[in-house]
Design brief:
Blueprint lengths: L1 E3 L6 E4 H8 L5 H10 L7 E5 L18 H15 L3 E3 L7 E9 L4 E12 L4 E14 L3 E2 L7 E4 L6 E4 L7 E2 L5 H6 L11 H14 L24 E3 L7 E2 L5 E2 L2 H7 L13 E6 L2 H13 L7 H5 L5 E7 L6 H12 L8 E7 L8 H16 L4 E5 H5 L8 H11 L6 E2 L6 E11 L2 E9 L6 E8 L3 H20 L4 E6 L5 H14 L6 E6 L23 E6 L2 E4 L19 E6 L1 H4 L3 H12 L13 H14 L9 H5 L5
Parallel strand pairs: 15-16, 15-17, 17-18, 20-23, 23-24
Antiparallel strand pairs: 1-3, 2-3, 4-5, 5-6, 6-7, 8-11, 9-10, 12-25, 13-14, 13-19, 20-21, 21-22, 24-27, 25-26, 26-27
Helix pairs in contact: 13-14
C-alpha cells in the first residue's frame, strides 16, 4: 500500500483506523515512523492505493480481510480508468461508480450510463447495477454558479469524479448535471425507464466486454457472469391466502379486475349524507369534473356506480382567483362559510395547479396549507390537477384512482384481504427530511383489513421519548378495543439501535407486564436497484409477484408487482423490488415467511389507486404522514378523521 496526505489517490481512511488495522502487519513500524515524520494526527484522513513501484511512501502489508475489498476496488478502478471510463472512486453509497459514454446530447452535454459496483467479500461477489441510463456530463469546462448547489465534477484533466459542497463561483469545471443544472439548461429526464430485460442486456454487455477480462492474482470472474440463485434461497408468498375480497365476498388476485367485475367490499357509512365542496380556479374545470364524476367518462361509470357515493353538491363552494392568492382568499372563505369547529358530512375537492411534489414552492405550500386547514375542521379532501381534467382523452385513467381515494377517506373499504384478521398489532415508521430537519411519521394497524387505527408524527430530535410513548398508547388502545394482544410487529425504516431495542423491551416486559413476542422488520425506504433478479423463464424479465429471494443473513428481496402469473396475458409494468431485513424474529418464534407475507399483504392495502405498490401501507402511509408533518414542525391535527382514515393519500 502507498499513502499520501494529498487527495491525488483514489481511496481514503482515517489515520486511527489505519493504525488499528495495520498493527500486526509486516512494515508497521516503518508506517508509524512515516506518520510521525509527516505530523499526521489520528483524526486526519490519509489517501491510499495499492502498490505502485514508483511511489515513495510505500509499505508492505499482509492483505487482511478488511483491505481485500479495497484492493479489489483498486484493481477494477484502474482497469476502467485505463479504458477511458469516467470513475467515481468514492460514491456516497456504493463502492465504486463508473460512467460509460453513450452518445452526444447536444453541444454542451454528453449522455453516460452509470454503473454502481459493490464488492461483497464474504460472498465472493461483485454486484453490478445500472444506476442511471441518463447521466449528463459536460463536454468541456463550464462556469460554476452558486445556484447549481452541491455538484460533482471531474478533477483537473483526469477522468476521476470529485464532490465538493462549494466550488469556486465563476470557476470552470467539467460538471455532472444535477437537478438544478438540468432545470437551468431546460433539460428534463426521460419518462421511460429501462425495463428488467434492458437492464439485463446492459449489465451483461458491460460484463462480457470488460469485467470478465479483469484477471489478476487472486481475482478472476466466472465466464457466465450472473449467478443462478440457489433454489434454497427462492421463496413465494402464499398467493391463495393473498386473494382480495370484493363485493359479496367475491375474490380476485388483481384489484383492477376485482373492482371491474365485482365492485367495492364495503360501502362508505357516510355516502348518503356526504356533500362535496368544489374548490376551483377555472369554472370549466369544475363543471367537467362534476360531469365526469356524476355521469362517468369513457370506461369509468361514475362515482356512484363505481364506489357507491352519490355526487351531491354542498351549497358551499370556493372560487379562488389564482394560486398565488388562494391561501389568503381561503381564510376569508373559511371565516364566511366554515365557521363551525367541526364538520362530519363534507368532502372537499380541490382543483388547481398545485401538487405536493411540485418544484414550485408556492404551489407546494398552498397544497399543505389548504389540506391542513380543512383537516382541522374534520373535512377530508382530494386534490386534482386541473391539467389532468383538461386531457379528456386520458383522464378516464385517473378517475378510478380518484374514486378509490374518496371512498377510503369516507371510511369505505375498496377491498380487503381474504385472510382472517389476527391479533397482531402492526405499526409502521418512516422518515423524511425537509431542509436540515428530519421528521418521523407512524401509521398504526390493528388488523389486516387496511383500516388505520392511529397516526402520529414528530421531529427526530424527540424520537426516543416519542417512539416509546407512541408504542405505549397504541398497545393500550389495542387492548381496550380488541382485547388480548398476541404479537407486536414494527415495520421500521432503518436498522434499530441497541437503545431503541432496550426501550421497547423495558416497555413491554417491565412497564406493561406483557409477555408477548415482538419483531422488527426493516423495510428499505426505496426500491432497490443494487440487488435485482431476472426471471430466465420470462425472457429475463421481472420475477412473479410475491417472489422473495434471500440475499444475506435475515435479508430478502421482495418482488411486489402486477405479474400474478407465470405468463400474463396482458403486458405488466416493471416494478423494482424492495429489500427487507428481519430482526429478533428467530429468538421470538416468528416465521420469516409469515412476516414477509405480512409485508406483501400490506402492500395490497394501499388505497391510493388500483396499482399494487412495492412498499407496504405501513411504511408508505408513515412516510406520507411524516412528509405532511414536516411542513408544520412535526405536528398534525388530532381528530377522528386524522386518526382513522387515509387522509394523506
Amino acid at each position: 500500500m502507498y499513502f499520501s496526505k494529498k487527495s491525488e489517490l483514489p481511496f481514503y481512511t482515517k489515520c486511527k483506523i489505519l493504525k488499528d488495522r495495520m498493527s500486526t502487519n509486516i512494515d508497521f513500524e516503518a508506517l508509524i515512523k512515516w506518520l510521525k515524520e509527516e505530523s499526521i494526527d489520528d483524526d486526519e484522513y490519509l489517501y491510499f492505493d495499492f502498490v505502485d513501484p514508483n511511489y515513495e511512501n510505500q509499505f508492505e502489508c499482509v492483505c487482511i480481510d478488511y483491505y481485500k475489498p479495497k484492493l479489489i476496488r483498486s484493481i477494477i478502478f484502474h482497469y476502467f480508468e485505463e479504458k477511458g471510463f469516467i470513475i467515481d472512486p468514492n460514491p456516497k453509497v456504493d463502492d465504486l461508480s463508473i460512467y460509460k459514454f453513450v452518445r452526444n446530447y447536444n453541444q454542451v452535454w454528453d449522455i453516460y450510463q452509470r454503473f454502481d459496483l459493490n464488492i461483497k467479500n464474504k460472498r465472493n461477489e461483485l454486484s453490478i447495477s445500472l444506476g442511471s441510463s441518463f447521466t449528463l456530463i459536460s463536454k468541456d469546462k463550464i462556469s460554476y454558479k452558486s445556484t447549481y448547489g452541491t455538484v460533482k465534477y471531474l478533477s483537473g484533466e483526469s477522468n476521476r469524479i470529485i464532490k465538493k459542497t462549494l466550488l469556486e463561483i465563476g470557476g470552470s469545471y467539467r460538471l455532472i448535471a444535477n437537478f438544478q443544472i438540468k432545470s437551468e439548461f431546460g433539460i428534463s429526464n426521460p419518462t421511460q425507464r429501462p425495463t428488467f430485460k434492458q437492464k439485463h442486456e446492459t449489465i451483461t454487455l458491460l460484463f462480457n466486454d470488460h469485467i470478465k477480462n479483469i484477471n489478476q492474482k487472486g481475482l478472476n470472474f466466472i465466464s457466465t457472469g450472473l449467478m443462478n440463485v440457489d433454489i434454497r434461497d427462492i421463496y413465494k408468498v402464499n398467493m391463495y391466502e393473498n386473494k382480495l375480497l370484493f363485493k359479496n365476498d367475491k375474490t380476485d388476485i388483481n384489484p383492477i379486475t376485482g373492482m371491474r367485475d365485482f365492485g367495492i367490499y364495503k360501502p362508505s357509512p357516510k355516502a348518503l349524507d356526504n356533500k362535496f365542496i368544489f374548490v376551483y380556479e377555472n369554472r370549466d374545470d369544475a363543471n367537467n369534473l362534476f360531469k365526469y364524476l356524476k355521469n362517468g367518462h369513457k370506461n369509468f361509470p361514475g362515482l356512484e356506480r363505481y364506489v357507491g357515493i352519490p355526487v351531491t353538491l354542498s351549497d358551499i363552494k370556493f372560487h379562488y382567483s389564482n394560486i398565488i392568492n388562494i391561501e389568503s382568499e381561503y381564510k376569508d372563505f373559511e371565516n364566511r362559510e366554515l365557521n363551525q369547529d367541526s364538520y362530519d358530512n363534507l368532502f372537499a375537492i380541490i382543483i388547481g395547479q398545485f401538487d405536493k411534489n411540485n418544484s414550485d414552492e408556492e404551489k407546494t405550500n398552498a397544497y399543505y396549507e389548504i389540506k391542513n386547514a380543512l383537516l382541522k375542521k374534520g373535512i377530508p379532501s382530494q386534490f386534482i390537477n386541473q391539467e389532468h381534467i383538461r386531457q379528456a382523452n386520458s383522464f378516464n385513467y385517473h378517475l378510478p384512482n380518484i374514486a378509490i381515494g374518496i371512498l377510503a377517506k369516507l371510511e369505505g373499504i375498496p377491498w380487503r384481504l381474504k385472510n382472517n384478521t389476527n391479533q397482531d398489532l402492526v405499526i409502521g415508521f418512516n422518515q423524511v427530511q425537509l431542509g436540515n430537519s428530519r421528521y418521523i411519521g407512524s401509521s398504526v394497524f390493528f388488523t389486516n383489513e387496511g383500516f388505520l387505527k392511529g397516526t402520529h408524527a414528530y421531529p427526530t430530535s424527540d424520537s426516543e421519548t416519542e417512539l416509546i410513548g407512541h408504542l405505549r398508547n397504541s398497545i393500550e388502545k389495542y387492548i381496550l378495543e380488541q382485547g388480548e394482544i398476541r404479537r407486536l410487529i414494527i415495520h421500521y425504516y432503518k436498522p434499530n439501535s441497541e437503545r431503541e431495542t432496550r426501550n421497547i423491551e423495558q416497555l413491554l416486559y417491565n412497564e406493561l407486564k406483557l409477555n408477548i413476542p415482538y419483531a422488527i422488520v426493516e423495510v428499505n425506504d426505496s426500491k432497490t436497484q443494487a440487488d435485482i433478479c431476472f426471471d430466465s423463464e420470462y425472457n429475463m424479465g421481472m420475477p412473479e409477484s410475491g417472489t422473495y429471494v434471500k440475499v444475506g443473513r435475515n435479508e430478502y428481496l421482495l418482488f411486489n408487482n402486477l405479474r400474478y402469473e407465470k405468463k400474463p396475458l396482458n403486458m405488466v409494468t416493471d416494478e423494482l423490488p424492495i429489500k427487507v431485513k428481519i430482526h429478533f424474529a428467530d429468538a421470538n418464534g416468528f416465521s420469516h415467511n409469515e412476516l414477509i407475507g405480512q409485508i406483501y399483504e400490506f402492500s395490497r392495502l394501499i388505497w391510493k389507486g388500483l396499482k399494487q405498490r412495492s412498499q407496504p401501507a405501513t411504511t408508505i402511509y408513515a412516510k406520507l404522514i411524516a412528509e405532511f408533518s414536516s411542513h408544520f414542525a412535526g405536528n398534525i391535527p388530532n381528530n377522528y378523521i386524522v386518526n382513522n382514515t387515509p387522509w394523506f393519500i
